[in-house]
């Protein structure tokens, strides 16, 4: 395994245990994190604090049991691709969702410089 793959795997392991600091640990201070258009938290955020404020704080406050379960990691050296499934129940509606995702991480020496999310935003929006 590569240092980059180890960093990405550790981020998902932290997510599984609810460790937000661990989720954000591989992000460079100027990392660009993009949630795709149509997703409730769509946009590009710079650095760990913006990602925390605009993505993870909202996921934690608006969803019950929200998960990003990785099923496959593709190690391309400086590019790591993760394929998996989102799931959770939106608190305001009580509706559950499951949607496949692909995450593309661009890293240098174990630090993420860019992250981009791809998912079926219609399935997520149905829960809203």
Question: What report would you give on this structure?
Answer:
This protein is an alpha+beta fold and 128 residues long. The protein is 33% helix and 48% strand. The protein has 4 helices and 6 strands; from the N terminus they run H-H-E-E-H-E-E-E-E-H. Strands 2-1-6-5-4-3 form a 6-stranded mixed sheet.
Strand content: over 45%
Please, how many helices? 4
What Rg do the Cα atoms give?
Answer: 14 Å
Number of strands: 6
Query: Reading side by side through the largest sheet, how are the strands ordered?
Result: 2-1-6-5-4-3
Shape: globular
Kindly report the oligomeric state of this protein.
single chain
In N-to-C order, the SSE pattern is HHEEHEEEEH
Alpha-carbon distance between the termini? Answer: 38 Å
Mean pLDDT: 96
Helix content: 25-40%
The secondary-structure class comes to: alpha+beta
Low-confidence stretches: none
Largest sheet: 6 strands, mixed
Describe the SSE topology.
Blueprint lengths: L2 H14 L3 H5 L2 E9 L7 E4 H16 E13 L3 E12 L4 E14 L2 E9 L1 H7 L1
Parallel strand pairs: 1-6
Antiparallel strand pairs: 1-2, 3-4, 4-5, 5-6
From the structure above, extract its key features.
alpha+beta; 4 helices; 128 residues
In short:
It is built from 4 helices and 6 strands. The protein is of the alpha+beta class. A hairpin with a 3-residue loop joins β3 and β4.
